[in-house]
Amino acid sequence: MKIAVFGTSNSILKNGYVSGLRFSPYVDTVQQFCLGHSTSVSLPYTTKGVNFDDFDYCLVDFVVNEETFEKFPESHREIRNRLDFLISLLAEKKCVPVAMIMPVQIRVDKPLPVYRLYLEYFREHNFPVFDGYDALRRLMAGSDTPLPSYFRDPSHLSNWAATALGLALGEQLAAFADKLLDRRVSTVRGHTFGYVRFNPRHNRAIPVVTRKSALSTERFLRIGAEERILFGIGEAEAVSGVGLNLGQTNWPLVVRSGEKRSPAFFGKEYFDPTEKRYLFVIRTMPELLAEENYVRLFLKPRPPRERESEAAPLPALIAEVNGVTVRYPQTDLATCALVLKDDTAGDLVTPISDTFFRGVAMTALRLMA
What we know:
Largest sheet: 6 strands, antiparallel
Distance between the termini: 27 Å
CATH architecture of the largest domain: 3-Layer(aba) Sandwich
Order of helices and strands: EHHEHEHHEHEHEEHEEEEEEEEEEH
Structural class: alpha+beta
CATH topology of the largest domain: Rossmann fold
């Protein structure tokens, strides 16, 4: 099997579930198209240039971050729009989308609504789902091992537990091929999306910085309190996400078109004043529907009450930004639903026996020793 992974930190961590997939005898290739600390708003960036006919399965692993970052009133509608966009790219390809739902420690007994949204969306299309919450409960069954031992931190499973889930997933994806009878393609109304990088030639006065990591090499416009980035946008188009280097951003951004403004603040806990940290993310913001044919992006002005003095100088405001995710006007999109042998065939966890879970747990512990 050949598998493409679209996800976030769970999908790129060393000795995570992707390692388990690679250890599986059923898996030939796993290719990652991932950005840490991001959500499905990154899909227009990570899917660009991917040939879905090259893969048997496409794992979609965003639930953990969507539950953390998707707090806007329209978030669920926007997530569905982005999932519709992804399905439109592979509706007529051989690749089958799979929801990979990884658990977080504090939500083991009560997952948030985004978890239910993904279950509903994938079940509506008869797409397979690997429910990591259910898998973790099965992994824990009959064991005296305390819950924290299954996690490396509150948001990520421990090496051995994640590897065990990857091994189980590989087995179940191999079995799913026999349950798939057909694919029915149809058309729905929906939105396409694109990721638009800022052009330094259109913003000549702003310094350009190139950053490199194992995941990406990108150019960023480094703005301070006085700089404004301008970029063109079409009629009925909306900005829905910002690509930036979290390691070099310490202040909220504002995206403005006409009289409309949308805040874009992603925290400053990853900011590195030595200018060495590179953490490229694409994060959501409240969608901004363009009122003009251009949009401005700038740092939020410092509050007047924060007065600078020689005795207590204020730190410089900085952001390194790369581009934006744009939602295009509604159009006809291809979609699909799978025809399966029975109504439960899309559930990739329930058919796994307790004996098998004990076996993959032992295998994972041995591999991680």
